[in-house]
C-alpha cells in the first residue's frame, strides 16, 4: 500500500533527512542574507536623510542641537543671497555642461561608429579623464588656465602678443573654466554610452534603409537616432545627476571664487556646514539639494522608462 | 574608393584625431611641467619639452612638499588612501556579490522592493547624509579615523556593487539554481560552487570601479578625516591650494600625477572592464 | 505501488489561479506526458512535483510518500531542464557527480557511476570538457547523464528537447525512450510538442488553463479526444473542423457540405439517440485529414471538391479546400494530386468522424464513432 512506505525510504540512497529546517532555510536564507544590507541602508541612507531633514528644523550650529526652530533655517537659507547665487550658478554650470557633453559625445560616437581604425585607442583616449579624480582634473586645468604659464602665455609666445585668456580670475568667466574641465571629463563617457547604443541598433534595419535607397545621413537621422531615445534619456539623467553633485572640481579649480562666482549648492552646503559652523542652514541646503535631485530625476526616470517601453 | 567617400573618411579621421589631441593635451602639459625646474618653467611655454628627465619635483611632491603645516609630501596621504581603499573595495564587492545573487536568483515576494530600496542609496546626493554621518561616526568614536572612512566607503558602495552583481546574475537562467537544488545543494553551496566560479569578470568590473571611485573620492575624505587619516585627494588639494611662499607648479603637477597614477594604471590595464562598469551603472534595471 | 500521485492539486499566485484541481495517478515505471500550449500550467505542475514551487492546496506523493513539505533534495527525483542548466564552471564529470558528492557518495563509487553513465550515453570522451565546449546535443546528453547518475525513483523532464534542431530532436527522443525502457523508472515529461507526446508517452495528460482536459493513452487521445481543444491540439496537420447544421433524414442524421464544386448532404454514422444535439442545431464536424482521401474505384459516393492549393510533403500531398466556408485539409497520394484550381473527387471516411458543440467545444457524438 502506498501509504505504508516509511517517510525515510530515501535514506538508503543517501538522501538528506527531510527536515523542517531545510524547507525553512530555502525560504528565509535569501532574506537573512540581505537583511544586514537592508538595515545598513535603513540607517545610513533613509535614517540619515531623515536626520538631515530633522537637523534643518533645529538651531544647530557647530554641534547638532535638537532644539526646534521651525522653518527659521529655511528662512535663513532663502534670504541668503549666496544661496541664490549658488542656485543660479548651478544653472549656468549645468546647461552648458550637459549640452556640450551631449553634443560632443554624440558627434564622437557617430564618427567612431563609421568602422574606423584604432577605435579602441581613440575610445581609451576620450575616456581616460574619467579615471582621474576631479581634484586631479581641477589641478591640471587650473594650470592650463594660469595666465602666466598656461594657454594665454603659450598663444602669446606664438606671436599673438595681445591675446587675453584669464578666465579663471574673471568672475564672469570662471564658471566657463569649470564647465570646460567637466566636459573634458565626461564627454568620453557620453560617447561610450552613445556608441554602445548605436551598436545596439539592429544591423538589418540599417541594411533595409540602404536597400530603400536612403543615404547614410538620412539613415542616421530617420532610423538610428530615433531608436536612441532611451540611451539619450539615460545619458541626460546621468549628466544632470553629475551636475548637481559636482563639488570636488570647484574646490580644486576655484574654491568657489573669484568671490562667490563659482559657488554651487553642493559647495554652499559644505561651506556652511563644515567651515562656517552653521549646521542648521547647511542641513536646510542639503535638503534642498535632495529635493532638486528628486524633483529632476524622478520625472526623467519616468520618461526614460516610457521611452524604453516605446522603443521595445 | 570614390573621391567624395575618400574626403569623408579623411574628415572623420581629422575630427577624431583633433579631439584626441585636445583630450590628451592636459595630461601632456601636466607631465612635461612636472619634469621641469622652476626657472625652466619661466622661459618656455607649457607645451615645450623639458630639457631633461628631472624627477626632483616628483621627489619633493612625494616626501617633502608642504600641505598646510606639515611638510612630508603626499606619501602619508597616499598610504592612508591605500589603507582605506583595500578593505572597502574587498568588503563592498563581497557583500554586493552575495546580495546580487540573492536578489537575482532567489526572488521572493518583496525582493524587487528591496532591490529598488537599496538602489536609492546610489542616487542620493551625499550632501544630504553628510551631517548625520559625521555625528554617527563621532558616536562610534570613529570620527577622523581610517576605520571610520572604511565604514563610510563600504556602506555607500554596497548599492552599486549589489546592482552590478544583480544585473550580472539576472542574465543566468533560473534553471541553474533549480538543477542544483534538485541535486541537493543549498543557498550557500550553490553560490560557492556554481555562481562564484563564473563571477571573475564581474568581480573585476566591480573591483576596478570601486577602487577608482574610492581612490578618487574627495567629499567623504575631506569631511570625515582628521590630520592623521586624510586620503590622497585631500592631500593633493591641500598641497596645491596652500598659498605659502612661492608656487611650485612643477611640484603641484607632479603631485597631481602621483595621485592619478594608481587609477590611470588600473584604467590602462583593465580599461575594458572599466567601461563595462560605467555602462552597467548607466543602464540599470 | 504508484510512482507518482497528484491529488486535487491547486496552485495560485496571489489571487490568480494557475492550477485548478489536478488529479493524476502514475503507475510505477510509467511514462507520463504533460502537454499543452504555453501558460497551461504544465511547467508549474512539474516544478511543484520537484519541490521548486510550493503547493497551494492538495497533495503530491512520490513512490507512495507524501512530499508536500519536503525540499527537492529529499524527494528522490532527478530533473532535466530545457536550458540543460549545466553548471558552467564544472567539467562534464563534475556536473554528473555533483549531486552524488552532495549526497556524500564515496569518491570511488562516484567515479564508477559517472563512468557507467557516460558509457551508456556515449559521452565518455567528453568527461573533462566544460559545458561551453559542447554542442547542443552533447549538452543534452550530459543533462540526462546528470539525472541518470542519481538513480532516482522519479525522473522529471521539462521540455528537454525544445532547444535542439529537428534532426537531433528525433535522435534524442528515441534515446530517452530507450533510457526509460532500460531503467524502468517512472517519468514525468513536460512538452508543448504533440509529436513528442504521442511518440514517448505511455499516457498523456493534455492541459489547458490549469485543468487536465484529457488523460489517456496516446491512441485513445488521438482517436477519441474529449473535446475540440484536445482534438485540435493532438495531430499534425490538425483535425479539420467543418461547421454545419445537424439535420435529420429518415432514422439517421445528415449534414450539408458545400465544397465549392457541389453541395451535398453527407450521412453521419451516429445514432440520433447517442448524439447530444438535435436536428437544426449548429455543430462542428471533426474529421482528420487522413480520413479525406482521393476517391478510388471502390468509393461508393465520391464528393467533388475544388482545390485551393496543394502542399506536397513527400509521402503524400495535402490538399487545401474550402468546405462550408472553412479551410479544410485532405491527404491524398501524390500521384492522385491535382493542381490548384482543379477539382478532385474525394472519399470522405466518416467512420471516425466526431461531432462538437461550436460554443463549448464539448463532444456531442457520445463517444461512439463507428
TrEMBL record, chain A:
| UniProt-listed PROSITE patterns | ABC_TM1
Q: How would you describe this protein's topology in the membrane?
A: Multi-pass membrane protein
Domain (ABC transmembrane type-1) ranges: 87-302
| Entry GO terms, CC | plasma membrane
Give compartment(s): Cell membrane
Sequence intervals crossing the membrane: 28-57, 90-112, 124-144, 173-198, 219-239, 279-303
Does the keyword Membrane belong to this entry?
Answer: yes
Q: Which UniProt keywords apply?
A: Cell membrane, Membrane, Transmembrane, Transmembrane helix, Transport
Tell me a GO biological process for this protein.
Answer: transmembrane transport
PANTHER family in the cross-refs: ABC TRANSPORTER PERMEASE PROTEIN
Family in the record: Belongs to the binding-protein-dependent transport system permease family.
Q: What is this protein called?
A: Carbohydrate ABC transporter membrane protein 1, CUT1 family
Species annotation: Devosia enhydra
Instruction: Provide the organism lineage as a comma list.
Output: Bacteria, Pseudomonadati, Pseudomonadota, Alphaproteobacteria, Hyphomicrobiales
UniProtKB/TrEMBL annotation, chain B:
**Alphabetical list of SUPFAM superfamilies matching this protein:** MetI-like
Q: Which GO terms describe its cellular component?
A: plasma membrane
Name of the protein described by the UniProt record = Carbohydrate ABC transporter membrane protein 2, CUT1 family
Could you read off the lineage of the organism from its UniProt record? Bacteria, Pseudomonadati, Pseudomonadota, Alphaproteobacteria, Hyphomicrobiales
Question: Where's it found, cell-wise?
Answer: Cell membrane
Where's the ABC transmembrane type-1 domain? 78-270
Q: Example GO biological process term?
A: transmembrane transport
Q: Which Pfam families match?
A: BPD_transp_1
Alphabetical list of InterPro entries matching this protein: MetI-like, MetI-like_sf
Q: Which residues cross the membrane?
A: 12-31, 82-101, 113-134, 146-169, 190-211, 254-275
Recorded hits in Gene3D superfamilies, A to Z, give:
MetI-like
UniProtKB/TrEMBL annotation, chain C:
Write down the superkingdom of origin: Bacteria
Key words of the record: ATP-binding, Nucleotide-binding, Transport
Its recorded name reads: Carbohydrate ABC transporter ATP-binding protein, CUT1 family
Report the CDD domains cross-referenced here. ABC_MalK_N (cd03301)
Q: Name one GO biological process term.
A: carbohydrate transport
Q: Where in the cell is it found?
A: Cell inner membrane
The record gives the membrane topology as:
Peripheral membrane protein
Task: Please list the residue ranges annotated as the ABC transporter domain.
Answer: 4-234
As for family, the record states: Belongs to the ABC transporter superfamily.
Gene Ontology, cellular component aspect: ATP-binding cassette (ABC) transporter complex, substrate-binding subunit-containing
Per its UniProt record, what Pfam families does this chain match? ABC_tran, OB_MalK
GO function terms (MF aspect):
ABC-type transporter activity; ATP binding; ATP hydrolysis activity
Matches recorded under InterPro entries: AAA+_ATPase (IPR003593), ABC_transporter-like_ATP-bd (IPR003439), ABC_transporter-like_CS (IPR017871), ABC_transpr_MalK-like (IPR015855), ABC_transpr_MalK/UgpC-like (IPR047641), Mo/tungstate-bd_C_term_dom (IPR008995), NA-bd_OB-fold (IPR012340), OB_MalK-like (IPR040582)
Amino acid at each position: 500500500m502506498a501509504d505504508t512506505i516509511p517517510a525515510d525510504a530515501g535514506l538508503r540512497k543517501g538522501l538528506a533527512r527531510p527536515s523542517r529546517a531545510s524547507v525553512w532555510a530555502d525560504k528565509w536564507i535569501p532574506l537573512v542574507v540581505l537583511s544586514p544590507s537592508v538595515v545598513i541602508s535603513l540607517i545610513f541612507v533613509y535614517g540619515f536623510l531623515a536626520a538631515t531633514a530633522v537637523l534643518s528644523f533645529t538651531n544647530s550650529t557647530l554641534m547638532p542641537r535638537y532644539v526646534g526652530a521651525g522653518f527659521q533655517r529655511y528662512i535663513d537659507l532663502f534670504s541668503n543671497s549666496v544661496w541664490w547665487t549658488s542656485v543660479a550658478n548651478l544653472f549656468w554650470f549645468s546647461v552648458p555642461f550637459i549640452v556640450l557633453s551631449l553634443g560632443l559625445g554624440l558627434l564622437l560616437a557617430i564618427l567612431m561608429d563609421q568602422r574606423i581604425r584604432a577605435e579602441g585607442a581613440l575610445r581609451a583616449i576620450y575616456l581616460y579623464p574619467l579615471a582621474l579624480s576631479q581634484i586631479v582634473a581641477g589641478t591640471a586645468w587650473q594650470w592650463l588656465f594660469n595666465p602666466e604659464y598656461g594657454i594665454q602665455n603659450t598663444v602669446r609666445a606664438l606671436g599673438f602678443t595681445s591675446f587675453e585668456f584669464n578666465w579663471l580670475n574673471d568672475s564672469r568667466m570662471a564658471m566657463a573654466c569649470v564647465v570646460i574641465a567637466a566636459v573634458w571629463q565626461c564627454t568620453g563617457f557620453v560617447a561610450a554610452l552613445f556608441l554602445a547604443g548605436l551598436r545596439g541598433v539592429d544591423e538589418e534595419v540599417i541594411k533595409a534603409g540602404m536597400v530603400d535607397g536612403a543615404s547614410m545621413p538620412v539613415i542616421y537621422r530617420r532610423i538610428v537616432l530615433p531608436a536612441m531615445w532611451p540611451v539619450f534619456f539615460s545619458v541626460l539623467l546621468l549628466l544632470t545627476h553629475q551636475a548637481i553633485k559636482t563639488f570636488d572640481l570647484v574646490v580644486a579649480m576655484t574654491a568657489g571664487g573669484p568671490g562667490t562666482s563659482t559657488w554651487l549648492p553642493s559647495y554652499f552646503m559644505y561651506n556652511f556646514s563644515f567651515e562656517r559652523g552653521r549646521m542648521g542652514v547647511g542641513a536646510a541646503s542639503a535638503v534642498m539639494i535632495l529635493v532638486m535631485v528628486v524633483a529632476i530625476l524622478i520625472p526623467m526616470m519616468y520618461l526614460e522608462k516610457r521611452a524604453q517601453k516605446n522603443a521595445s | 574608393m570614390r573621391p567624395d567617400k575618400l574626403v569623408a573618411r579623411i574628415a572623420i579621421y581629422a575630427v577624431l584625431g583633433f579631439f584626441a589631441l585636445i583630450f590628451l593635451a592636459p595630461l601632456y602639459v601636466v607631465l612635461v611641467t612636472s619634469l621641469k625646474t622652476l626657472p625652466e618653467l619661466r622661459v618656455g611655454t607649457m607645451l615645450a619639452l623639458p630639457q631633461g628627465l628631472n624627477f626632483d619635483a616628483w621627489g619633493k611632491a612625494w616626501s617633502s612638499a608642504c600641505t598646510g603645516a606639515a611638510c612630508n609630501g603626499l606619501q602619508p596621504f597616499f598610504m592612508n588612501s591605500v589603507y582605506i581603499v583595500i578593505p572597502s573595495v574587498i568588503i563592498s564587492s563581497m557583500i554586493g556579490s552575495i546580495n546580487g545573487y540573492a536578489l537575482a536568483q532567489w526572488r521572493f515576494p518583496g525582493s524587487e522592493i528591496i532591490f529598488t530600496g537599496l538602489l536609492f542609496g546610489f542616487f542620493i546626493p551625499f550632501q544630504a547624509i553628510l551631517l548625520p554621518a559625521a555625528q554617527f561616526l563621532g558616536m562610534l568614536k570613529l570620527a577622523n579615523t581610517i576605520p571610520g572612512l572604511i565604514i563610510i566607503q563600504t556602506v555607500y558602495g554596497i548599492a552599486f556593487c549589489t546592482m552590478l552583481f544583480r544585473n550580472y546574475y539576472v542574465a543566468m537562467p533560473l534553471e541553474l539554481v533549480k538543477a542544483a537544488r534538485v541535486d541537493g545543494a543549498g543557498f550557500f553551496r550553490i553560490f560557492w560552487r556554481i555562481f562564484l566560479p563564473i563571477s571573475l569578470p564581474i568581480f573585476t568590473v566591480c573591483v576596478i570601479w570601486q577602487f577608482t571611485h574610492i581612490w578618487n573620492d574627495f567629499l567623504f575624505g575631506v569631511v570625515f578625516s582628521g590630520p592623521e587619516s586624510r586620503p590622497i585627494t585631500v592631500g593633493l588639494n591641500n598641497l596645491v591650494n596652500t598659498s605659502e611662499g612661492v608656487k611650485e607648479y612643477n611640484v603641484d603637477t607632479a603631485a597631481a600625477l602621483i595621485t592619478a597614477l594608481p587609477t590611470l594604471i588600473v584604467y590602462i590595464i583593465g580599461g575594458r572592464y572599466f567601461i563595462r562598469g560605467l555602462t552597467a551603472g548607466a543602464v540599470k534595471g | 505501488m504508484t510512482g507518482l500521485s497528484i491529488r486535487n492539486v491547486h496552485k495560485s499566485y496571489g489571487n490568480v489561479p494557475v492550477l485548478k484541481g489536478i488529479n493524476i495517478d502514475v503507475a510505477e515505471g510509467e511514462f507520463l506526458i504533460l502537454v499543452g500550449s504555453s501558460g497551461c500550467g504544465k511547467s508549474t505542475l512539474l516544478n511543484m512535483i520537484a519541490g521548486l514551487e510550493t503547493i497551494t492546496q492538495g497533495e503530491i506523493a512520490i513512490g507512495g510518500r507524501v512530499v508536500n513539505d519536503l525540499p527537492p533534495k529529499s524527494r528522490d527525483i532527478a530533473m532535466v531542464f530545457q536550458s540543460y542548466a549545466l553548471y558552467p564552471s564544472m567539467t562534464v564529470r563534475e556536473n554528473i557527480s555533483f549531486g552524488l558528492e552532495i549526497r556524500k557518495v564515496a569518491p570511488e563509487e562516484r567515479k564508477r557511476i559517472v563512468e557507467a553513465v557516460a558509457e551508456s550515453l556515449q559521452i565518455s570522451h567528453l568527461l573533462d570538457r566544460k559545458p561551453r565546449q559542447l554542442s547542443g546535443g552533447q549538452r543534452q546528453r550530459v543533462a540526462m547523464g546528470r539525472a541518470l547518475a542519481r538513480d532516482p525513483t522519479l525522473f522529471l523532464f521539462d521540455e528537454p528537447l525544445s532547444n535542439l534542431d529537428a534532426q537531433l530532436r528525433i535522435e534524442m527522443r528515441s534515446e530517452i525512450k530507450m533510457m526509460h525502457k532500460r531503467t524502468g523508472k517512472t517519468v514525468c515529461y513536460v512538452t508543448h510538442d504533440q509529436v513528442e507526446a504521442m511518440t514517448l508517452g505511455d499516457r498523456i495528460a493534455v492541459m489547458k488553463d490549469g485543468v487536465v482536459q484529457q488523460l489517456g493513452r496516446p491512441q485513445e487521445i488521438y482517436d477519441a479526444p474529449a473535446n475540440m481543444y484536445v482534438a485540435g491540439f493532438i495531430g499534425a496537420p490538425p483535425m479539420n473542423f467543418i461547421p454545419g447544421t445537424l439535420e435529420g433524414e429518415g432514422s439517421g442524421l445528415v449534414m450539408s457540405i458545400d465544397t465549392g464544386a457541389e453541395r451535398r448532404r453527407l450521412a453521419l454514422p451516429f445514432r440520433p439517440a447517442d448524439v447530444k444535439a438535435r436536428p437544426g442545431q449548429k455543430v462542428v464536424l471533426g474529421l482528420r485529414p487522413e480520413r479525406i482521401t482521393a476517391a478510388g474505384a471502390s468509393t461508393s459516393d465520391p464528393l467533388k471538391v475544388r482545390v485551393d492549393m496543394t502542399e506536397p510533403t513527400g509521402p503524400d500531398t495535402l490538399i487545401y479546400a474550402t468546405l462550408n466556408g472553412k479551410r479544410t485539409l485532405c491527404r491524398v497520394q501524390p500521384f492522385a494530386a491535382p493542381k490548384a484550381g482543379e477539382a478532385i473527387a474525394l472519399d470522405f471516411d466518416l467512420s471516425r468522424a466526431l461531432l462538437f458543440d461550436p460554443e463549448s467545444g464539448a463532444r456531442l457524438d457520445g463517444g461512439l464513432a463507428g
